[in-house]
Structure to design on (251 residues):
């Protein structure tokens, strides 16, 4: 069992490094917390540190939550693309094996039955996190302002993936006029790289707020003085463009 624990840990390190490398080209560099934690556990285990097993257990539990979140993403956001489920199933299987192969004297987890119960709890935490999942989505935005109290706003992820909504915030209107881009021959004020804070519940968008954009001509990030809520019941078009499209994992 001791040898199996080290083998599974090394496999988790390799998996974490592969994921970090692949995400480098899609979302940029990030801190590989879970990979670092399992490396620390390996070093402590090799050094025969008396509490090394606790580090192995903590690492296994956190990997379980992370892999359950990955599986949850496929279930709630990936429209049945279960081929991507392997990205969660592999670390899930390795972390389950690590949890069961790590021995400890703690009464809470000193039997396999208790470990299975604990694993089930952490899986529920990972899946249950989708009950309230805040993310930030980046889209392009056009404001069509006139003298009226309300005005139309177009948010676009791609030419064929857009939605329109009617807003009435005077504060947002004034800030857009002050810092947004305008182009000759095109109507509206252009706000590239608009940040929208989105909250979902088990894959359904329950709120969305416009937070900021970047004036690309002068490389200036413009953060609105107060977030503007998008009235979801007034959206016309593909609201789903605000849903996350990448796996939201810690590693």
């Amino acid at each position: 069992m001791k040898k199996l624990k080290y083998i599974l840990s090394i496999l988790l390190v390799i998996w974490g490094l592969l994921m970090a490398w692949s995400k480098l080209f899609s979302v940029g560099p990030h801190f590989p917390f879970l990979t670092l934690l399992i490396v620390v556990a390996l070093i402590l285990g090799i050094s025969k540190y008396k509490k090394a097993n606790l580090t192995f257990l903590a690492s296994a539990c956190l990997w379980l939550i992370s892999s359950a979140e990955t599986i949850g993403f496929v279930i709630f956001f990936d429209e049945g693309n279960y081929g991507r489920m392997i990205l969660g199933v592999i670390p899930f299987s390795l972390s389950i094996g690590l949890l069961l192969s790590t021995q400890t004297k703690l009464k809470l987890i000193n039997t396999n039955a208790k470990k299975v119960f604990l694993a089930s709890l952490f899986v529920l935490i990972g899946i249950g996190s989708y009950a309230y999942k805040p993310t930030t989505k980046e889209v392009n935005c056009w404001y069509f302002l006139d003298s009226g109290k309300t005005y139309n706003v177009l948010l676009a992820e791609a030419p064929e993936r857009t939605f329109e909504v009617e807003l009435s915030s005077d504060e947002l209107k004034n800030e857009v006029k002050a810092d947004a881009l305008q182009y000759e021959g095109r109507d509206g004020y252009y706000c590239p790289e608009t940040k929208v804070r989105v909250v979902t519940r088990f894959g359904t968008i329950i709120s969305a707020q416009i937070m900021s954009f970047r004036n690309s001509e002068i490389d200036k990030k413009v953060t609105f003085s107060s977030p503007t809520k998008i009235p979801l019941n007034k959206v016309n078009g593909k609201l789903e463009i605000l849903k996350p499209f990448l796996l939201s994992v810690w590693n």
Observations:
- The CA atoms of residues 148 and 168 lie 9 Å apart.
- Residues 52-77 form the longest helix (26 residues).
- Helices lie at 2-24, 33-46, 52-77, 86-101, 112-128, 170-179.
- Strands lie at 133-144, 151-158, 161-167, 189-201, 204-215, 220-229, 236-237.
